[in-house]
Amino acid sequence: MAKRDYYEVLGVNRDVSEDDIKKSYRRLAMKHHPDRNPDNPKAEEQFKEVKEAYEILSDANKRTAYDQYGHAGVDPSAAAGAGGMGGFADAFGDIFGDIFGGGRGRSNVYRGADLRYNLEIGLEEAARGTETKIRIPTMEECETCSGSGAKPGTKPVKCTTCDGHGQVRMQQGFFSIQQTCPKCRGAGKVVESPCPTCRGAGRIKQHKTLSVKIPSGVDEGDRIRLSGEGEAGVNGGPPGDLYVVIHLKQHAVFQRDHNDLHCEMPISFTTAALGGEIEIPTLDGYAKIKIPHETQSGKVFRLRGKGIKGVRSSSHGDLMCHVIVETPVNLTARQRELLNELEAINEKDAGQHNPRAKSWMDKVKEFFAE
């Protein structure tokens, strides 16, 4: 697959200044960094593409070669054939360090990864708010060595390969390639006596229990950020954050639609025909509603203020009660007799007693008559 133009990757013109190239790179690197896009599988490739473009265009010699010969002027395979440089892909370590704490004369300090925890709660808990405890696996700073990775009583020593810079430089013609030190991996220091607890890593995998306050009104997909409760940083970097993502359990009675609630309420055939009063459930107990006579199945009754007050709302939503006329079952002989008598009366004047059915049948007759 052909590589994209480096200027296009960074979103700049060919006559752009070095400062503008750097500004564009910083913005795109932060945007596409994998730690900031855990759910985007393409983020890492986009991040690498941006790094590669910056490494070429930020170097005056490489930029000149690229402007004259395009990708062929900076192609690593071509360079290897001409002078055996190799390792070109590793040259981006210095660029990465400029933004995230590494680079010449500094250790590669990285912020810890953000974590995500899916928390399932009930509708009542979401409506009223609650506090719960969660247990999460995470990488924590080793207490034995305080994150240094060195055995207690010792400390990391300066890397002799890169002289503590974390980077090594290779020169080949007009190419000057700076890459991460292979011995210390950019830290600038090496651990000669590893900590027995973390084996030199400086971090260990642990489980921790956290208390999470769930505000009233949270909805499906809402996120609660716990600052600094993500994974520990590397080489003294700050910890990441923990994002608790809310998921609502299916409720036996209510369905939530933002701040409104919906429920279905079955009513008898006689109540629908003659009217009456029924009790319906709400999150605060029972409420009574009057059913007018001749109510049809599917009629919706709105109870204002009986819904949920969302996190960012100033008032409660409503409760929508959908009445469903229930057809009687397991009829006795007397019930069948009465219903047959009722049906016979209705048929004598269907237009008055069953207007919707008569209207529908008239339309059917007109359709077949055409």
Structural account:
The chain has 370 residues and is an alpha+beta fold. It folds into 3 domains: 6-74, DnaJ domain (Helix Hairpins, Orthogonal Bundle), CATH 1.10.287; 115-150 and 197-248, Sandwich (HSP40/DNAj peptide-binding domain), CATH 2.60.260; 255-369, HSP40/DNAj peptide-binding domain (Sandwich). Helices cover 29% and strands 26% of the residues. It contains 11 helices and 15 strands. The protein has helices spanning 6-10, 18-32, 43-57, 60-69, 76-83, 93-100, 123-128, 269-274, 333-348, 350-353, 355-369, and strands spanning 115-121, 130-141, 157-158, 167-172, 175-180, 189-190, 203-214, 223-226, 242-248, 255-257, 260-268, 276-282, 285-291, 300-303, 319-326. It has a 4-stranded mixed beta sheet with strand order 10-11-15-14. It has a 3-stranded mixed beta sheet with strand order 1-9-8. A hairpin with a 2-residue loop joins strand 4 and strand 5 (175-180). Helix 2 runs antiparallel to helix 3. The longest helix has 16 residues, at 333-348. The radius of gyration is 35 Å and the shape is elongated. The chain starts with 5 loop residues before the first helix and ends with a helix. Residues 78-107 have low confidence and may be disordered.
Shape: elongated
At CATH level 3, the topology of the largest domain is HSP40/DNAj peptide-binding domain
Structural class: alpha+beta
Broad CATH class of the largest domain: Mainly Beta
